[in-house]
Specification:
By secondary structure, this protein is mainly α. The protein is built from seven helices and two strands. It has one domain: Four Helix Bundle (Hemerythrin (Met), subunit A), CATH 1.20.120. A two-stranded antiparallel sheet has the order 1-2. The radius of gyration is 17 Å and the shape is elongated.
Length: about 190
């Protein structure tokens, strides 16, 4: 896969996933606030969790972008681009609900402190920031910095992979929201 296709794949996933998520804000109130039988999160809580998690991932993505751009001085961009494999398969499992066990940190749990519109605005801002970071890193610079990701034992991932992770995390919760909606319909 070429670098351009690699970045486009991430952009497309980010846009399509978040377009889907933003549609969930338009769902009927009774569906968004339905509490599942297993006592899991409501759709409204899931949306807040996605925004919270993305907020903390964005801190790492922003720092990673800055460090990657600084690393141009010390590392060979050409060599990194020529040797990268473009494989994102190791992150795909993140996008599947219940595909692995993970105990999320307390600071990523929904608290109900923000309005739905604040959460939606935050998500839109996060999407735009990710797209801007990808534009800043359009020549492969995102390969020049890696950070450890402990979720599902991913290990060291580059800045592009962090953005893809953010998008895959959101995709994971789309499935959870769909399950909630189906359960709601079955109990009406």
């Amino acid at each position: 896969m070429t670098l351009r296709n690699y970045i486009q794949k991430i952009q497309i996933h980010l846009l399509s996933t978040h377009s889907n998520i933003l549609d969930w804000f338009e769902e009927k109130e009774e569906i968004k606030h339905y509490k599942p039988i297993d006592n899991g999160w409501t759709i409204a809580e899931i949306l807040e969790h996605i925004a919270l998690t993305s907020h903390f991932l964005m801190i790492l993505i922003d720092k990673g972008t800055d460090k990657a751009l600084r690393n141009i001085k010390n590392l060979s961009l050409e060599e990194s681009v020529n040797t990268f494999d473009g494989d994102l398969d190791n992150i795909n499992e993140i996008g599947i609900h219940k595909s692995f066990d993970w105990i999320r940190p307390k600071h990523m749990e929904p608290k109900g402190e923000k309005s739905e519109w604040e959460i939606k605005d935050e998500m839109i801002s996060q999407i735009n920031t990710c797209l801007n970071q990808l534009e800043k890193l359009k020549n492969g610079e995102g390969l020049l910095y890696k950070t450890t990701m402990s979720v599902n034992e991913l290990g060291k991932i580059n800045v592009y992979e962090y953005i893809y992770f953010l998008s895959k995390h959101a995709e994971r919760h789309i499935q959870q929201m769909q399950e909630n909606k189906e359960e709601y319909k079955q109990h009406q």
